[in-house]
Amino acid sequence: MMHRKLVAISFVNWLLDGLFAALWTCVIAMVVFATYILSPFGARDREAARELMSAEVTMESRAFCEKFGMPIGSEQHLRCVLELEKIRANEDQRTGALLDLP
């Protein structure tokens, strides 16, 4: 009976030690992640991602308007791109309101 108690106690200790180590691993990972996000490198990467997304949106708008017979440089193409920008801005506003973002 005493042997079973010792085995159970050592198993519980082993389990708690593992959970404690996992907890500290998560804390360290969060600190590293927060440091990256708040660092200039994180800001630089976010800005690069915004620029890339902007370029992709511009290419998509051009391709969309050309697909419907509006050649680049024409008045129709310019109006088409401007309308797409309005649609995207409205969608961003709705999504931001839905997610309660500023």
Describe the structure.
By secondary structure, the protein is an all-alpha fold. It has two domains: 1-38; 52-102, no CATH class. It is built from three helices and no strands. It has helices at residues 2-38, 40-67, 75-99. Helix 2 (40-67) packs across helix 3 (75-99). The longest helix has 37 residues, at 2-38. The protein is elongated, with a radius of gyration of 27 Å. The termini are far apart. The relative contact order is 0.05. The mean pLDDT is 88.
Taken together, the total number of domains comes to 2
C-alpha Rg (nearest Å): 27 Å
**Helix/strand class:** mainly alpha
Topology as a string of helices (H) and strands (E)? HHH
Portion in beta strands: under 5%
Report the total helices.
3
Overall geometry: elongated
For the largest beta-sheet, the strand count, sense and barrel status come to: none
User: Uncertain spans, ≥5 residues at pLDDT below 50?
Assistant: none
Number of strands: 0
Distance between the termini: 63 Å
Helix content, binned percent: over 70%
Q: What would the average pLDDT be, to the nearest integer?
A: 88
